[in-house]
Design brief:
- This protein is an alpha/beta fold.
- It has a single domain (16-238), classed as LmbE-like (Rossmann fold, 3-Layer(aba) Sandwich), CATH 3.40.50.10320.
- It contains 8 helices and 8 strands; from the N terminus they run αββαβαβαβαββααβα.
- The protein has helices spanning 3-9, 32-46, 71-92, 114-124, 139-154, 182-191, 198-210, 228-238; strands spanning 13-14, 22-27, 50-57, 96-102, 128-132, 160-164, 174-177, 220-226.
- The protein has an 8-stranded mixed beta sheet, with helices on both faces.
- Strand 5, helix 5 (139-154) and strand 6 (160-164) form a beta-alpha-beta unit.
- The protein binds zinc ion (ZN).
């Protein structure tokens, strides 16, 4: 790739809400969808775009437990987080959400999880895939990104890839003005009651910071939009 092409990849642009879009969000855990792209999802569903979410795990390790947690504790938290995810998806206007069979904190040991994502893509023919940034600090988030990469190896239709950020900031090239949706984003995050209130504080702060790129916005979400071939190059750099 020429240097000019590489630089143009990182030229910032404003994300346009397109009602015809059909989007699949790959979320390693319940709450990643709300934190990483909740405002953008709301703005799309308000315009009648289709937004579905695939939760790779039920987030059963995301709590305070005895050490190690018992199966009962994990099952009880999984049940609670499924309900919280359902409440959050309702707030975001999500059309359909699915829980896949990934184990929380062990996604990197389950490379075949991508087959379940592939099945969803083949059934619904989305045009946009949102997934965590491959250099995210959380191992499950990186594993989710790799699963999406495996999906692209077997999926023949054209897909726009939008990376979203959760635990680590990404080198964004696209910004969505979510000023009109920040209230719903925070409401969706609050629906994840078991995860406490800190997430909301982080979302407020990150949203304000990301708005620096947009002169008229109070809150923004940032993405790295990339082609599937650039995804391959990027993974080569961060692995
Ligand atoms: Zn997560």
């Amino acid at each position: 790739m020429a240097v000019g092409q590489r630089l143009s990849l990182f030229k910032p642009r404003l994300l346009e809400i397109q009602p015809t879009r059909s989007m699949l969000v790959v979320a390693p855990h319940p709450d990643d969808e709300s934190f990483g792209c909740g405002g953008t999802l709301c703005l799309h569903t308000q315009q009648k775009a289709r937004v579905d979410v695939a939760f790779l795990t039920q987030g059963e390790m995301g709590g305070s437990f005895s050490n190690p947690p018992t199966d009962f504790e994990k099952q009880r938290l999984a049940q609670k987080r499924r309900q919280e995810a359902s409440d959050a998806c309702k707030i975001l206007g999500v059309n359909q959400y699915t829980f896949l069979n990934g184990r929380d904190s062990l996604l990197s040991e389950q490379p075949d999880i991508y087959k379940e994502v592939l099945k969803i893509l083949e059934n619904h023919r989305y045009d946009t895939l949102l997934c965590p940034w491959p250099a995210d600090a959380h191992p499950d988030h990186r594993a989710a990104s790799q699963a999406c990469f495996r999906v692209l190896g077997e999926y023949s239709e054209k897909l726009d890839i939008w990376f979203y950020e959760v635990r680590s900031p990404l080198p964004a090239n696209c910004f969505c003005d979510i000023t009109a949706a920040i209230g719903l984003k925070i409401k969706a995050l609050r629906a994840h009651v078991s995860q406490g209130t800190e997430l909301c504080e982080h979302a407020w702060c990150l949203g304000r910071y990301r708005a620096v790129q947009l002169s008229s916005a109070n809150y923004a979400e940032a993405f790295l939009q990339i082609s599937s071939s650039d995804f391959l190059r990027l993974l080569g750099l961060v692995q």
